Amino acid sequence: MATGSNTAKAAPVATTAEQEYLESLFWLFEAGFPMTGANLSRAMRLSAPTVHEMLRRLERDDYIRRGDGREIEFTDSGREHAERVVGRHRMIERFLTDVVGVPWDDVHEEAEKLEHAMTPRFEAYVREAVGDATTCPHGHPIQVGSRVDGVPLADCRPGAKVTILRFENEAEDLLHYLMDAGIEPGVEGEVTANDGEELKIATERGTSVLTFSVAETVSVKADPSPPPRKALPEQLVLGRERYGR
Predict the structure, then answer these.
(1) Domains and CATH numbers, the chain
(2) Are the C-beta atoms of residues 65 and 58 closer than 8 Å to each other?
(3) Structural contact between residues 147 and 136, judged by C-beta atoms closer than 8 angstroms
(4) What is the value of pTM for the model shown?
(5) Nearest residue to 73 (alpha-carbon basis) of 26, 124, 109
(6) The predicted structure's pLDDT at residue 26
(7) Partners of 66 in the β-ladder
(8) How many alpha carbons lie under 13 Å from residue 100 in its C-beta half-sphere?
(9) CB neighbours (10 Å) of residue 106?
(10) Which pLDDT tens digit goes with each residue over 196-244?
(11) Are strands 218-223 and 151-152 parallel, antiparallel or unpaired?
């Protein structure tokens, strides 16, 4: 049968590299940071020319659009791809933690490796295995779009009762730092000190001490609550050498 000239062209399947960029763009979007090439470059620790070239590919394949300014927007296809990749990543993290027994501070990079190689059959098994889990081990919703609003722990004053919601930065060295400090999603406590350089929180596990820059990356529910604020863009990347700043 002849194919008409107006037959719709099938959307290309996102490459592994494109999926990684879409995932990082969605992280910026979900955290409330401007979706710009500069922020993406900082978040992914890649050079501006490298990021610019991939953004051109994403635009060519109709995953993003860019206007006259610097801001990037998802197309419908790009948003769908990004949400699927992000949800799958978080589901794998939960699977690795709850079923396989991998410590939660080690699962992020392992999930990065698995998410692009998972067959539909194995994905169905993983979904069944995690059951009714709603978040990844770091507190992010598996069903994207169901994110609970919080405030940076760094903004909470002494006396505030807090519940840890999630870690906005999932860099592995930072996750190790938080685990060593006894901080994880679901933990409840009271802020006992905050001098702008160091914050202390008393929980049933004892007293946890965090540098202010780390506390910037931890979202909490607080009572009394400080005014809502996004974590600072400077915290997009937080390496070990910045813990004391």
Answers:
(1) 16-77 (1.10.10.10), 151-242 (2.30.30.90)
(2) no
(3) no
(4) 0.84
(5) 26
(6) 93
(7) 72
(8) 15
(9) 17
(10) 999 999 999 899 999 998 999 999 999 999 998 876 655 555 454 544 3
(11) antiparallel
DSSP state of 27: H
Supply 47's token pair: 């050079």
92-105 burial, b at 16+ Cβ within 10 Å, e below that, comes to bbbbbbeeeebebb
Rounded Cα–Cα distance for residues 182 and 6 (Å): 60
- Of 242, 116, 92, the C-alpha closest to 177 is 242
Locate 14 and state its tokens. 């996102």
Tokens of 97: 């933690």
CB 94 within 8 A of CB 142: yes
Q: Kindly tell me the sign of the dihedral angle through the C-alpha atoms of 193, 152, 183, 132.
A: positive
- Whether the Cβ atoms of residue 175 and residue 107 lie closer than 8 Å to each other: no
Residue by residue, DSSP assigns 172-190 as: HHHHHHHHHHT--TT-EEE
d(CA 207, CA 139): 21
As given in the structure block, the two tokens for residue 15 are 């490459």
CA distance 231 to 177: 18
Structure tokens at 85: 């990749």
